[in-house]
């Protein structure tokens, strides 16, 4: 999950909040500040909940600005957005194919949404291509080994 912070008149900043991107100590600060457990915060970020996005972005921003106080990091509405990383885009694409494969129009709409949600458009396109690629049929069973001819016995 990528949090994009795009302050008006400033350069957009991207914070990777995906797996293995936060230290345990950072997660603990996030939990204390948000007054919620990490699993709840991650779900709230997926839903675009501003308090979760602000808290996680603030902790990640503190890596380059250690003196930044939470009260001083107060983005305007719309300046924080959540985006999908490549792994998440792949999961969404597969879920959309499973759900909408019988209705190409709905599937196309879902893929358009995925393109908007992805941090990198190339990740969305790769995920869509992988999810819609023809699947290899199951491999043919291995032939049974032929019994070896009995060797004549010398006697």
Widest β-sheet, arrangement of strands: 2-1-3
Q: Poorly predicted ranges (pLDDT <50, ≥5 residues)?
A: none
- Return the structural class: mainly alpha
- Helix content, binned percent: 40-55%
Give the SSE string: EEHHHEHHH
Question: Rg, please?
Answer: 25 Å
Q: How can the largest sheet be summarized?
A: 3 strands, antiparallel
User: What distance separates the N and C termini?
Assistant: 77 Å
- What's the count of strands? 3
Mean pLDDT across all amino acids: 90
Number of helices: 6
Q: Could you give the topology of this structure?
A:
Blueprint: E1 2-5, E2 13-16, H1 24-34, H2 38-46, H3 50-61, E3 80-83, H4 86-100, H5 104-117, H6 121-132
Antiparallel strand pairs: 1-2, 1-3
Walk me through what this model shows.
- There is one protein chain.
- The chain is mainly alpha-helical.
- It is 47% helix and 8% strand.
- It is built from six helices and three strands; from the N terminus they run ββαααβααα.
- It has helices at residues 24-34, 38-46, 50-61, 86-100, 104-117, 121-132; strands spanning 2-5, 13-16, 80-83.
- A three-stranded antiparallel beta sheet has the order 2-1-3, with helices on one face.
- A hairpin with a 7-residue loop joins strand 1 (2-5) and strand 2 (13-16).
- The chain starts with a strand and ends in a 23-residue tail after the last helix.
